[in-house]
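Q: My labmate handed me this sequence with no annotations at all. I'd like to see what the chain might look like in three dimensions before we decide whether it's worth expressing. Could you predict it?
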Amino acid sequence: MEIEEKSDMEWMRQAIQMAEKARTIGEVPIGCIIVHQGKVIGAGMNQRETTQSSVTHAEIIAIQEACHHLGSWRLEDCTIYVTLEPCPMCAGAIVQSRIPRVVFGAEDPKAGCAGTLMNLLEEQRFNHQCEVEKGVLAEECGNVLTSFFKEIREKKRLRKNK
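A: Here is what I predict for the chain of 162 residues:
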């Protein structure tokens, strides 16, 4: 039986679903999945507010799940899909996990380390580099974040005017 290949857009839609799940619990809506041989082996959503831990980003959670699934810290035959460009911490974890391919949606002008502020994923001085595919469903990914922050600002404004 042959495994049906999904497109980057199809996988990114699953990462967006994780972002929407984060939104429902009041987290910044960032989602991530890790795919190995046509199967999702790790999934994460931002959980910093829930856990009050700065390291519970979507990518870190997905990487931990994928490592557990494979029984290895090396995720060499995987692709990671994330709705927002990885920050320095997550980019470092991706490099350390040996993930060869990174696909992200929206660019992050404040913390993006996959090409926006710097590119840790393709840094030649490291012992591992990743192939980076940016802008997959970028508008959709960006809209999820923009609408979330717009709602937050509106709620604050309403509380102020009470």
